[in-house]
Structure formats: structure tokens, C-alpha cells
Amino acid sequence: MESVDLIYKTIYILVIFGITLLIATYSTYAERKVAAFIQDRIGPNRAGPFGLLQPLADAGKMFFKEEFIPAKSNKALFILGPGVAMLIACMSSAVIPFGDMLIIGGREVYLQAIEVNIGLLYVFGVVSLGVYGVMIGGWASNNKFSLLGAIRAASQNISYELAMGLSIIAILMMTGSLSLREIAAQQAGFNWNIWYQPLGFIIFLVCAFAETNRTPFDLPECEAELVGGYHTEYSSMKLGLFLFAEYINIFVASAVMATLYFGAYNFPFMHELGALISDDPVIANNVITILGVVVMFAKIFFFIFFFMWVRWTLPRFRFDQLMKLGWQILIPLAILNIILTGGGILLKDHFFN
Amino acid sequence: MEPLTNRSKKLAKKEMTFAEKAYLPAIAQGLGITLKHFFKKKSTIQYPEETRQRSDVWRGLHVLKRDEEGRERCTACGLCAVACPAEAITMVAGERKVGEEHLYREEKYAVTYEVNMLRCIFCGMCEEACPKAAIFLQDDKIAPARYERDEFIYGKDRLVEPLKTTETK
Predict the structure, then answer these.
(1) For testing contact with chain A, the best of B18, B44, B49 (most A CBs within 10 A)
(2) ipTM of this predicted complex?
(3) Residue A88 is part of which domain span?
(4) How many domains does chain A have?
């Protein structure tokens, strides 16, 4: 790899990392605001204009809390748990294409940190590792409630990963590629996958809620039954990291959903608009790419909002209902979706080729 | 057993329809309701900056009035203390000395007059009992939160109406 490329990649990864953290930080603020607005309240508005400094105040508070480690806990694992959760949450945004390519000085610059031809598998692999943070933390706490929460998290994530994977297979059958850049590029214009995969999208959406431990599937931290779930014993910034990792996971899940089903950085009439702006293909391409990044983030923000919107609408599932939904409803539906997609592809090949 | 009223409803457990079993229509409906609330007018009152509108007969913090010449009206008759259902009022009566005529209206006055705001229920009985129109419950002031219990015992220093000359209003 050339040194210019290396420097560019380093800067880009740092920027993406920063954006990820920034969005996660302000997700906490957004969550409180959304919750307040849905409940006819105003929400935080004292720290800074519109309460915009609230996340900083929260972080400051978190840092100054007592760092408590239970006497009978496994200290190394206890400290490792939130670290693993945070690390793994931050890893998965590496392969997401936040934009197409810019042309700078005749050099093609892709707005994606790493292009691997198994990008989707990488995301799934990393996301499923996420349960380790919860599991380690819950186990090391040496507390029955923490352990129960961790077990719930593990069983829930594993159950819903199956349906999630199956719903993705239908997408793979259509696109024929595991590369996220490829999948995004195939949805150019308004040719989004959601038009072909509505059922798959609903399954994926439900599973994404379960994977990120969000309501209505936040049973691992079900305070009515489990005190605080897997983070019962955690305090200070270690608790902060667990909560923070959840918001990063939401961001990543939103980005993946936008990429897979809602056309990533594509928006309607993008090529016509490009031709309209400038005759110079380089300028047209760059303008469209930058607009595409804005569109991508708009989609991500919508999904983050949707996560919060659902959280303040639906109550929690019961654990047996959760398992029943995962194994008896979503998995058969996902398999049905695969069969339907296969049939559709066969019909299309038969009649339109 | 005979039912006590005829208002009880017979409930039959019906088989759920497909739409009900699928959850999704109900979830969409719920999302619609929460979204409606998202854009509704907020009912919050930003307290220190704005206060809730009070009724005209609202009873707040006590005041010991002065007459037109700035003399204290209270004669320490003790009727307010007797009328008080919460026993929040205590006072010590004293005799007016020569040369104090400009301070106290009657020959007898309250040397100390204390209202315990933690006991007070703001019923306004003292106001009704007072024959000299000396004690009133204001409609624009409250007893604010404090850190110590002692600070809730309001003495004459905080109860007596300030003199007109020093009044800023």
C-alpha cells in the first residue's frame, strides 16, 4: 500500500472513530430529548443551549463516581467486561461505506475504512462477539442477577442472530455479493432493496432490536426482575462504557440497516442531479458523493430515532414470548422469505432475460 | 352468588385475528400515538423563570401588616394561635413603653411572633380569626425550601411587613 493511501486510511479511520463516539454521545442526549417529547415534557435544557452540554455533564458525573469492585468478583474479568463491550462495538463501523468515492487530484478515494469482500460477514462476526462483553461482565460480578442478565443476553443474541442471518441470505441471493460496497453500489438511485425485501427488512429490524438489547427486547437489563441485569454491580465509567457501547451498537445497526435495505448513500435522481450540477464529471461526482454522505447520515439518524421511538412506545416482552417470537415465528418467516426470493429470482430470469 | 350490580360485563375470550397475532398493526398504531405526543404542546413549566398561575384566593406566606402610619397592628391577643388547627403560631406579648407609640398601635404588642412553616397548613384560619386585620396570607409568596428545620420558623424579622419608606414596590 502506498504511503499516501496509508495516511489517508489512518485519518479516515480516526474520523470515523470520532464520528462514532460523537454520535453515541449525542444519542444519550437525543434519547432523553425524545423520551421527554414523547411524554409531553421538555427534557434536559439547563446545561448549555438546549441542554447540548448534557452528555458532557453526564460523562463528568460518571467519572467522579466511586469505582466499585465487589470483593468476591473476578477483578481482571470485571474490568475486562466493559472494555470488551466498548472495543467490539467500535470495531464494526470499519467496513460500512459511508459514501461512494471522491476524486481528489485524479486519485479515487473511497469513503470506507476497509473494503473486504466479506464485509457483511465481518459485521455479523463482530456484532455477535459483542455478547462476550456482557457475558464476561455478568459472570465476573459474582452476583446472581448479573449472571441471569448475562445468560439472557447470550441466549437472546444467539437466538436472534439465526433469524438475522437467514433474513440476510435473501439479500445475498439478490446481490450475489457479501461486500457492503458492492451491495450499496447495486442500489443506485431509487433501486433500494427495501422494495424487494419488505419481509426481510422487518425480520432484520426486529432482530436488530434484539441484538442491541433495546426495548422491547431489553430483557438482559430488565430492572423489574433482575435489579439491573448484567451491570448491577457496575458503577462509575465502567457502567458508562456498557451504556455507551449500547448506543454505539445502535449506531452500527442503523448504519447496517441503511446500507442493506435503504440504499446506503444513494438517493433518487442522483445521476440526473449530477449531470445538472456540472458538465465536469469529477466535480459532479464529488458533489453527488458529498450529498450521498449527508443522505447516508440522515438515514442513520432516522433509524436511531426509530430505535428511541420504539423504546418509548412498547413495553418489554416476557422471556418465553421473546424466545417464541425468535424461534417459532421469525426463523420460519425468514426461511419463507428465502424461498419467495428464490422463486422471484427464478421467475425474473425466466421471463425478463 | 348473586351479583351486586347489573353492571358487570360478560367477557368472552375470542380467538385473535391474524392482524392481532402479527402485532405489527398494533405496534404501528402505538407508534402513531407516541408520534402525536412528540409534536404536542409541552406541559412543563420552567419553574424559576415562570410560575404556575395561581388562583385569586391562593394562600401563601404570612405577613404581619402595619397600619397607615407604619405601626404594627398586632396586639398579641392570641386568637390566631387559638384558631390555628396545626398549632403553628406562638407569640410572647409585651407592654408598649412610653415613646414607642410610633411603633405599635395598641398598648400591647407581640414581642416575638413565630410561625412554624413546617406545621402550618396554610388554611387561613389565623387570617379569619384576627380582630385587628394584622395577619394575612399573601397570594404571591411561598415559603421556599431550605436546608435546616430551624430556618422554617419564621420570626417577626421575616413576617412583619417592611416599612413603606424602605419598600421598593
Answers:
(1) B44
(2) 0.77
(3) 3-352
(4) 1
Query: With an 8 Å Cβ cutoff, are B37 and A309 in contact?
Result: no
- Interchain CB contact of A42 with B (< 8 Å): yes
CA–CA gap between residue B91 and residue A115 (Å, rounded): 85
What DSSP line would sit under A76-141, residue for residue?
A: HHHHHHHHHHHHHHHHGGGG---S-EEEETTEEEES-S---TTHHHHHHHHHHHHHHHHHHHHHHT
- Among the partner residues B30, B33, B43, nearest to A40 by beta-carbon distance: B43
CB contact under 8 A, B24 and A202: yes
Measure CA B72 to chain center. Answer: 24
pLDDT digits (tens, 9 = 90+) for A95-125: 888 877 777 777 777 777 777 888 888 888 8
The alpha carbon torsion through A46, A49, A52, A57 (nearest 10 deg) reads -40
* CA distance to partner chain A, nearest, from residue B49 (Å): 12
How would residue B90 be classed by pLDDT, with cut points 50, 70 and 90?
A: very high
A336 touches chain B (CB under 8 A): no
Which residues are B153's β-sheet partners? B116
Query: What are the residue ranges spanned by the domains of chain B?
Result: 62-159
What does the alpha-carbon distance between residue A245 and residue B169 come to, in Å, rounded to a whole number? 56
pLDDT in tens, A130-144: 888 888 888 888 888
Query: What type of residue is A4?
Result: V
Chain A interface test: which of B23, B24, B38 (most A C-beta within 10 Å): B38
Interface test with B, best of A31, A32, A33, A39 (most B CBs within 10 A): A39
Give CA–CA dist A206/A60, Å, rounded. 34
Pairwise CB contact (< 8 Å): A37 & B35: no
What's the pLDDT score for residue B165?
A: 60
Fold classified for B62-159: Alpha-Beta Plaits (3.30.70)
Question: pLDDT tens, A45-85?
Answer: 888 888 889 888 988 888 888 888 888 888 888 888 888 88
Question: Which positions 14-33 of B are in contact with A (Cβ < 8 Å)?
Answer: 24, 27, 30-31, 33
Q: Closest approach of chain B CAs to the CA of A311, in angstroms?
A: 10
Q: Grade residue B169 by pLDDT with cuts at 50, 70 and 90.
A: very low
Average pLDDT, chain A: 85
